[in-house]
Amino acid sequence: MNPLVTTGLEAHRGTTALSVNLNKVALLRNTRSIGIPSVTRAATIALEAGAHGITVHPRPDQRHIRAHDVVELAELLQAWPGREYNIEGNPFHNLMDEVRGLVRRGLPVHQVTFVPDSVEQSTSDHGWRFPDDAQRLAPLVAEALGLGLRVSLFMDPVPAQMAAARALGAQRVELYTEHYASTHGTPEGGAVLGGYVAAAQAALAAGLELNAGHDLNRANLTDFLRAVPGVLEVSIGHALIADALELGLAETVRDYLRCIHAAGAPT
Question: Of the four, 76, 114, 189, 198, which is 20 to 30 A from 135 by CA?
Answer without folding.
Answer: 198
